[in-house]
Structure prediction request, 168 residues.
Amino acid sequence: MQPLVSIIMGSTSDLPVMEAAFKFFDSQEIPFEVLALSAHRTPDEVAEYAKNAHQRGIKVIIAGAGMAAHLPGVIAAMTPLPVIGVPIKSSLEGMDAALAMLQMPPGIPVATVAINGAQNAAILALQMLSVNNPEMMAKVVTFKQNLKQKIVKANADLAQVSYTFKTN
Prediction:
């Protein structure tokens, strides 16, 4: 099975956050790989990975990093693939990581999700993959419909809650 998405973490300490992306891809039956690479501690390995990921069949890269959060930007600078950044809340409430990903220079975009938003990164990656793939588009549509059903059920449950002055 060839991975379509690569999930990169700056450190295995990011694993608890990034695991949400693993679970989403697993539930949607999307092949993915997981690597720990550091823009600061393993720069040569990051460069080698980023320059060759597209040649290995990877279509989207998700990169999670905290603090200075250079990993997504460094990867984006060296790959033709879309890169989705996940700022990890490790210092300054994650704002330092978010700003490092958001404030990329012209020509080097990093699509950035919410702090600790690995699941949204995975959903966005699937949406990117689905643009020319009807089977994956069906997965996105089903996922979105299931989100709607959760709210419909929540409202049905709330209708059963009884208070003297509750009107619905």
